[in-house]
Amino acid sequence: MHLSEQEIIRREKLQELTQLGIDAYPAALFPITHSSTFIKENYKGPENAADFADVSIAGRIMSVRDMGKANFCVIQDGAGRIQLYIKRDDICTGEDKTLYDIVWKKLLDIGDFIGIKGYVFTTKTGETSIHVKDLTLLSKALRPLPIVKEKDGESFDEVTDPEFRYRQRYADLIVNPGVKDTFIKRTKMMNCIRAYLNDMNALEVETPVLQSIPGGAAARPFITHHNALDMPLYLRIANELYLKRLIVGGFDFVYEFSRNFRNEGMDRTHNPEFTILEFYVAYKDYFWMMETTENLLEQVAIATNGQTKLTVGEKEIEFKAPYKRISIYDAILVHTGIDVSNMNEDEIRTTCNTLHIPTEKSMGRAKMLDEIFGTMCEANYVQPTFIIDYPIEMSPLTKKHRSKPGLVERFELIVNGKELANAYTELNDPIDQRERFEEQTKLMERGDDEAMFIDQDFLRALEYGMPPTSGIGFGIDRLAMLMTNQLSIQDVLFFPQMRAENPNS
Hints:
Blueprint: H1 5-19, H2 36-42, E1 55-66, E2 70-76, E3 81-87, H3 88-91, H4 98-107, E4 113-122, E5 128-139, E6 150-151, E7 154-155, H5 162-167, H6 169-175, H7 177-199, E8 203-204, E9 210-211, E10 223-226, E11 231-235, H8 240-248, E12 253-261, E13 273-282, H9 286-305, E14 309-312, E15 315-318, E16 324-327, H10 328-336, H11 345-354, H12 365-376, E17 385-391, E18 407-415, E19 418-425, H13 430-445, H14 456-463, E20 469-475, H15 476-484
Parallel strand pairs: 3-5, 8-12, 16-17
Antiparallel strand pairs: 1-2, 1-4, 2-3, 4-5, 6-7, 9-11, 10-11, 12-13, 13-20, 14-15, 17-18, 18-19, 19-20
């Protein structure tokens, strides 16, 4: 194990602390009475000084200003940062000044955790601070933090290297304070969604992550093997078919925040492990679902940002309902000038060639239409827009349109040029569903590794009868990107997938 000079010095300091009889990693509980943010927001000076005459707080040392027999220090706790005033004679009341002269001045470093007790006061410069009366080492840091300089409370040389930030998120969270805010917003967003659905009497459920059939989406799965059962299993690509089984079983409204896994490419909007919210409601259709989606996202925007109009990059996006609606055929016509609605597979392939969109022999009509829309149209829809009424070939789990032959009752919600949600009036005809699955099998035989498997158990469930149902899947990570103004999915995942680290780097 190669150690830098600083790492070697810190280990030597650890030994010196041990020799002084100081446990650098004590097990005992340290009592905490206040957070840094609470103190700074509620301390009013002499009028309520008595309420802050005895505070106990703990956190990580982030900076030190040496003033000789007194030091100013900034610590960071879970809520924020606060300044400490540490005077030698106050923490060393007797003749022995070791705690200040040796431990504090020489053996503690930026990054170490300390616990302090004292009282709150205001410095001559007007900064709310804590006058330390007692100091305890709680944890010695053996690796130095990246240095981030601050001026007037703002960081001006934050660590921006993605390799460091995503691989060492723990350090990123310490030195880049704004990162924590992103993840707090993400949690607020999910809490808002839960509250909204719970208020509608929806039931939160859990369904299998390991599945014998990777159903519910067109995607390439991760495969593993269960030794005891001697059978292949797949990490789920979607939870749709299991939630529909629950609708068959008599639950009228179910939802799940589902961790899904797809063995596909990675980019600024894709990670192999991601979170989807799916919910299914009996006796509803995709028109009801569009209205519900609009209202939900409006509430989410307010809960996370206090308003419905959000800045995303250089764009202003308005989440206030209602949202624009346009059919996928009309969208393609608007952005290419080509009417593809009555074209067969060969004609669609020719159109792709005309538009310089690459195709493969394994691609059917549905996949090529998806490529046309994705390449020529999708990026144009910045404001929330429902793309509706898809061709039947693109939607194997969707009910046929009640008035438009060859189409299904499906919508995708596009925001900022990316799909955010996908919803159907669900197919509940078991005979029709079996035929759709068989069409998917033919595509699989042609080499389409994203075609759907036939789930015989799901078909059996449908044969028992599923009521009219509408369902939707939301990309939670993409929604978090919008709500926190992040342009990369890696910035809203605590630990995005990375290449294996080079041990020699």
